[in-house]
Design goal:
With about 230 residues, this protein is of the alpha/beta class. The chain has two domains: about 160 residues, P-loop containing nucleotide triphosphate hydrolases (Rossmann fold, 3-Layer(aba) Sandwich); about 70 residues, no CATH class. It is built from ten helices and ten strands. A six-stranded mixed beta sheet has the order 6-7-8-3-9-10, sandwiched between helices. The chain has a four-stranded antiparallel beta sheet with strand order 2-1-4-5, with helices on one face. Strand 1 and strand 2 form a beta hairpin. It is globular, with a radius of gyration of 17 Å.
């Protein structure tokens, strides 16, 4: 579904991504793990069309993307849930979901998708009239994911969904990801939490200082002593 080939991104003289190759097959959850500053957010922003002037290739469902604007990529079926959640804090949960589904035609379709989001995250139904900014951190992350799903994406990109959350909420995010996987949705998961990524991902890429250092299925990857020491010993 998604292929990234020899992707290079520079900020002035700083080389942020250096020859990235990555593949996401339809129906898979693919994880990208790495420390702060590894280039994870640059990678997803580039795929989503928010980083200008990259080099290389990004192909989505057979269509080259580098000349497509961010909104055009969204219309093709790419939905990014950004780090920091990107909610409308002074709007209600339900209004945020409506904003997420603004491109959908027909109220019945919007209501169907909203019902699916409430089934996935029942607490959002309980909080549907509450302002997004008054939710807990975990509830805000659930709402951000639900907003991403409201656009009916072919590819959902999650940038650090577990960041700053308590372990019990991270488990809930993991449950959500497992349900999305069972539904057949394709997900690119960007994470520092290697345990979460290893629990749900079909394959994982390890990004270090702008380069892919390792790539394998989780059970093989975490047998690598260098990977285990860096990501599983914290």
């Amino acid at each position: 579904m998604l292929e990234v080939r020899n992707l290079v991104v520079r900020y002035g003289h700083f080389l942020a991504l250096d020859g990235i190759d990555l593949r996401v097959d339809a129906g898979d959850i693919v994880g990208v793990i790495g420390a702060n500053g590894a280039g994870k957010s640059t990678l997803v922003r580039t795929i989503a069309g928010l980083t200008p002037s990259p080099e290389g290739e990004i192909v989505f469902r057979g269509q080259p993307l580098l000349r497509q604007a961010a909104h055009e990529r969204m219309l093709l079926g790419i939905s990014l849930v950004p780090e920091g959640r990107g909610l409308f804090s002074q709007m209600s949960v339900e209004e945020n979901l409506l904003m997420g589904g603004y491109k959908l035609s027909g109220r019945a379709r919007v209501n169907e998708d909203m019902a699916r989001c409430y089934a996935l995250f029942p607490v959002l139904r309980e909080r549907r009239r509450q302002l997004a900014g008054s939710l807990s951190g975990g509830e805000q992350q659930m709402l951000a994911i639900a907003m991403g799903l409201m656009s009916e994406p072919k590819l959902l990109i999650l940038d650090e969904p577990s960041l700053g959350l308590a372990p019990i909420v991270i488990n809930e995010i993991g449950r959500c990801l497992s349900e999305l996987k069972e539904s057949g949705l394709t997900v690119l998961l960007i994470e520092q939490n290697a345990v979460l990524a290893g629990t749900v991902a079909d394959r994982i890429y390890v990004l270090q200082t702008g380069r892919i250092r390792f790539h394998d299925v989780p059970e093989n990857l975490f047998r690598n002593p260098e990977v285990a020491e860096s990501f599983l010993s914290i």
